[in-house]
Fold:
Amino acid sequence: MSFEPNLVGFLCTWCSYTGADLAGTARVKYPPNLKVIRVMCSGRVDPSFILAALAKGADGVLVCGCHPGDCHYVEGNYKCQRRLPITRRLVGEMGIDVRRVRLEWVSASEGKRFGEVVNDFTEQVRALGPLRLQEWGFDRDAADAELAHEGGAHA
Amino acid sequence: MPKVDITVDGRPISVEEGSYVLQAAEALGIDIPTLCFFKYVKPYAACRICVVEARDRRGRTRIVTACNYPASEGIEILTRTPRVVAARRLNLEMLMSRCASMPVLNDLAAKLGIEKPRWGTGTDTCILCGLCVRVCDEIVGAQAIGFASRGAARYVTTPFEVDSEACILCGACAALCPTGHIRMEEAGGREVVHSEITLGPNAAIAVPFRQAVPNAPRIDPEFCVHFRTGGCKVCAAVCPKECISHDDADRTEEFGVGTVVLATGYADLDPAPLKQYGYGRLPNVITSMEFERMNNAAGSTGGRILTERGEEPRTIAILHCIGSRDEDHHPYCSRVCCMYALKFAHLVKEKTSAEVYQLYIDMRAFGKGYEEFFHRILGEGVNVIRGKAAEVVRAGEDCEEGTLLVRCEDTLISKFREIPVDMVVLCTALEAHGDAKEVARRFGISVGADGWFIERHPKLGPVSTTTDGVFLAGGCQSPKDIPDAVAQGSGAAAQAMSLMTRGEVEMDGAYAVIDEEICSGCRLCNDLCPYGAIGFVAERKVSSVNPALCKACGTCAAGCPSGAIRALHFADEQIFAEIEGILS
Structure:
């Protein structure tokens, strides 16, 4: 059986989540690998969300926001646009292929495009294969415990 | 000006010194015939029909022209003495001897009791009243025409008898000409210019159309003589209430509102780029909007359906889906065209004896009573051809039935057809305004690929938008017919009203809060917030969120280095739990 990547998507509620909704109402077919988490704005996506998703077993993370200039919150997507490359660099330095983290702009009218993006990202991660953090000595339980130890701040 | 007392036919009147006798007589309701007087230009005394007898205080009388004879203290004016009548008759008979027999002269002759002019009639249709020359000079300010030659050879013409560039085609000379000697003609012999038909009177100042709101005349600066030459202002002089101001200009006014209904409507596709239909190139190829204006009884054709030559067409083809359902233009269906095209057919049948052809892709009679209307039209003998028109060309010389040929494939009989017609109506696509994207950005809403504004939800939120308090109504959201637009507009108004009558806005439970125990007071979040909702509390050295301004985007929560900001409903632990949940 071929590898089915486990993907997490952070979608801004105004453009990309609505776009995904439109993909649904328009009966656009796209792979079921992406599990969507709705956030109010792509600017809400804390780099730790992406790291947490990868740590907890995601093979890739997709962040979708409004097109530049169309942000419902004026400039949240620009903040995301600046945070994402830094997050990707961090991910890369950890030895994880940066192609596992992707930022895309999907507007509310782009249901079809949302399908294409998910399709493309799924295929890309499928080609990269599973992210086997455990094989590299990553202890998820220890990481969880550490996060829990940090307390309310980031967990 | 001091007042002077005069009498006209024995009736006393007090007038301004130096004002003209003709006006005094007019004020008393005494008729003095004239051919060359117009209130708004200087009197000229050219026709000499307005002659009256003036008797000064010493009793001396003489014949004067009333139009330019100034009133002075104590003069007596006599308008009906035998001497006056004889003078008027003589002057008119002399005028008639050089002029052709024309109603304006014949009527006056009958009034003055001239049965047959003593010296016969001439051929000239100009009576040399000079109204045209004076209006062009004094009112319009163009000075495009004047008198040439002298005495018996005098005539009105343009300088050096060439087409004058000074003429602004205002038509004032033609409008004032009492005999029709000066006429306005459409260059190229067109009686009707379809693209210029207006819904109301075709004048520079008019109520644009009967149902206009506000129902008041407005000046069209493009056609108003004043805005081209700086002269005229006759409308302002005529208006008894002094309502007309030529100095008014557009103003930008700012006011605060709580709700906005966007009802910016739609635009019509310009069919000129669809060269195969010949719009703008072939005569009598018109758009549906031009046809609709022509149909308006208050419009410039008076509701008559006419070709460019001013004749009733013998055959009309109505072409559906021009730019709609067309991969090269708009893939969507414009929704209203099928039904108005059927209405056009009905109107043509009602007003003319023309044959009507409908060329359609699919007949989309989707609404209540619409299918029934379609069947009624079929019963009226309208020819419906299932097949989109391929092109419109000029018919050959030998074509007796029409001046244009419509080529199409009749898909129901699988035959190629050429239909000779006199007029082609293009049912052009409804499209979004070119600046829809800019408007959407200004109101924080989205536009689709076609440029239509996007509603909050296609099924559950068809009136509201992603911005609270901004609602959509009508054609700006998608092409729709009148019942649908009215329904959506009512919905938008009701939603806006329900927000307003409540007087207070229900806030979303999602907003950001700062844990002051953790906040280090770095103030990073202060700059992150696009709404300025986060301020710094100097006495406690922490930042604080104003929940009324916060829109819950969460950018601050993502950016807080100490994790002190909690985006309610989207808190870190909630998202981490979601991640955990979907990955387990």
Notes: Chain A has a mean pLDDT of 89. The first helix of chain A runs from residue 16 to 25. Strands of chain A lie at 7-12, 34-39, 60-65, 101-105. Residues 84 and 103 of chain A are 7 Å apart (CA to CA).
